Amino acid sequence: MEVVWQAISNPGSLGEWFMPNDFKPELNFEFTFRKPPQKGWDGITWCKVTQYIPLHLVAYTYRGKASGEKTLACAGIKSETGDKVVKGIFTELDTILKFTLSPSGSGTEMILEHSGFKGFKLVIVSIVMGKGWKKLIDSKLPQALEKISNQSAPK
User: Fold this and answer.
1) What's 72's domain CATH number?
2) Tally of domains in the chain
């Protein structure tokens, strides 16, 4: 469980599989996730730790603002026409991201909840982000877990 906990609560490990950040695992700590600016998004997600129980749960606000162009890009849709149609449509994201860990057999169960999507535009964004989360959890997180395991293995 400690390896999975490190992947979601250590800023360096979290940055390896998700986004670079200045996270500190402390209740009420305000931090950001940052990526290079992209079409329709400044690259910054603003967060504040709202729940923290070591080795079990971490939750934080997850806020940002992006245009429809960013949503199309996240969905893998490359369309000049689509970009023109959605360019002026801005969406403010004011959501909660929560990771809960529990023992499961000889391993760890991790539940990721991304909630608080309100209104039609944000329901669409939630579907796109859900696909992005699945991709991260299925591909990048296992690599980060392996790296953490290798670093903590006795030599």
Assistant:
1) 3.30.530.20
2) 1
